């Protein structure tokens, strides 16, 4: 905190000195260090206009003592935002780089379909451009994200999954693009996925329709 304050003081001093030596009158100008331009990267044109309007409503003034909490409130209201970075281009420009969240799956809540983002937020379906797997059941988004991490650590490719089925016991089934269903227990998920992956690679099991691993230490193939 002390270092941040020191940096701000140094910046003020340097700006004061450099501008003052050229024209002391500028220091009396109310527009000195006022934010005059905001560049937003990572959004399309319509999204940029919406964000610019929201930021303008904040009446951002001094570029040095920028209220980042107020800006955070703006970007937190956009569920498609994963994270963002603000770069100050003195004396009067802000450059904001936005990273959009990854779209992971679709889910239905209260009769409406949403996209589940990697940021854990629900996003309007209108933003979907590509095929996404569907989640049946009503898991919390964090529950799904935890399950996806286990898939990512396994030998399975997430892109091979067509549907997810979530049960109140917090157990998952997955349906692959080739319509094979893998029934998982809520234990040893990564190991079970890896074992299932090896089964599916084996030519002797190419007619598999269901892999049932709900019983501890057993895998039933149908």
Features:
single chain; 222 residues; alpha/beta; 5 helices; 12 strands; elongated
| Largest pleated sheet | 9 strands, mixed
Instruction: Please estimate the helix content.
Output: 25-40%
End-to-end Cα distance, whole Å, is 62 Å
Helix count?
A: 5
What is the 3D shape? elongated
In CATH terms, the superfamily of the largest domain is Cell division protein FtsQ/DivIB
Q: List how many beta strands DSSP finds.
A: 12
Task: Give an account of the 3D structure.
This protein has 222 residues and is of the alpha/beta class. The chain has two domains: 33-100, Ubiquitin-like (UB roll) (Roll), CATH 3.10.20; 103-221, Cell division protein FtsQ/DivIB (Rossmann fold, 3-Layer(aba) Sandwich). Helices cover 31% and strands 28% of the residues. It is built from five helices and twelve strands. The chain has helices spanning 2-22, 45-56, 68-76, 141-153, 189-201; strands at residues 37-41, 81-89, 93-100, 103-109, 112-117, 122-124, 134-136, 161-166, 172-176, 181-184, 210-213, 220-221. The strands form two sheets. The chain has a nine-stranded mixed beta sheet, with helices on one face. Strand 2 and strand 3 (93-100) form a beta hairpin.
